[in-house]
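Issue: ligand-bound run for uridine-5'-diphosphate - logging full I/O for the record.

Environment: standard queue, default settings, no custom constraints.

Inputs:
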Amino acid sequence: MRRVVVTGAAGFLGSTICEHLLAAGDAVVAVDDCSTGRWSNLDHLTGDLTCVEHDVSTGLPVDGPVDAVMHFASAASPPAYLARPLETLAVGSEGTRHALELARRNDARFLLASTSEIYGDPLVHPQPETYWGNVNSVGPRSVYDEAKRFAEAIAMAHHRTFALDVKIVRIFNTYGPRMAPGDGRVITNFLEQALTGRPLTVYGDGSQTRSFCWVDDEVRGILALLASAWNGPMNIGNPGEFTVLECAEIVREITGATAEIVFEPLPTDDPTRRRPDITVARRELGWEPTVDLREGITRLAAWYRTERLG
Ligand code: UDP
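Outputs:
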């Protein structure tokens, strides 16, 4: 049994990580300031779970031995981070430094939740870890993109300077139960709209692409990375690539929604395409996603109907 600190534990991804760790018999210290997460996301969990309400950009007060630190605290949906620009920069910079210092004090493994956003609007497709990205450092999205790029830089500096065991997961669009209602992400919006009979809002002409990974596939990959000897960044995502318009049509088809699709303005610097190259994850972890978009949307629509609308 290990004792694992998870920051951002009350969020969508953090709560699913806690679920998998506890199911494997690990002890979990869950840290969150509940700015975008909710403790109720952990209500269904049993096992050795301690909850600490704290903003990690001001410190990380965890006593006792720690075997691994998983740093997932941050607003993650574009509307959420655009509404909290300075907090997002703070948690990516100071928050990451505090999480690294906790790992260093305990000689623990450190895993950073990074993002496909570090590739910006990519000029290389699909994106391998060796691609350096195409990011607008002064645009509105830079508060998230550059915070995560800084987080990667400070994590690797700790690896080089102190030989800290650093893993960086670059997470591509992930979806599943407990995504925050109204978080503004495309799958959340389309499903909520379809199931409540409202028009589906496609931004731009819907030709931009994303690659969507079912949350349990994503977390299985992340925990395999944590258990591995790998240091540095690794893409974990589902390479199945869809235009946003295709995504809207799949949601309509699966939910049987009759509501129309309406077109709204494209947000500033919205990436035109995104697809992970997962050669490294396949080779190093033997990891492969198993749930395709239609299967995932079917599962998530069922969850919404019972948990949110039932
Ligand atoms: N999007 C959309 N309608 C919505 C919400 C999002 O067309 O109601 C688009 C958004 O412009 C982007 C893609 O869907 O091209 C994915 O957006 P999301 O906010 O989920 O995440 P991102 O990949 O941009 O971080």
